[in-house]
């Protein structure tokens, strides 16, 4: 196992996933902003 490095990577991956979902939702709800 990678220990802390793996945990940090998982946190970054989760943050990117959340950001991507939020971006898609905003793009669908408020397309006039893009």
UniProtKB/TrEMBL annotation:
A single Gene Ontology molecular function, please? P-type potassium transmembrane transporter activity
Q: Does the keyword Ribosomal protein apply?
A: no
For this record, an example GO cellular component is: plasma membrane
The name on file for this protein is Potassium-transporting ATPase subunit F
InterPro entries (alphabetical): KdpF
Pfam families of this UniProt entry? Answer: Potass_KdpF
What domain of life? Bacteria
Keyword Transmembrane helix on entry: yes
């Amino acid at each position: 196992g990678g220990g802390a490095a793996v945990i940090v990577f998982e946190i970054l991956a989760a943050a990117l996933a959340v950001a991507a979902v939020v971006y898609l939702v905003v793009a669908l709800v408020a397309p006039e902003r893009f």
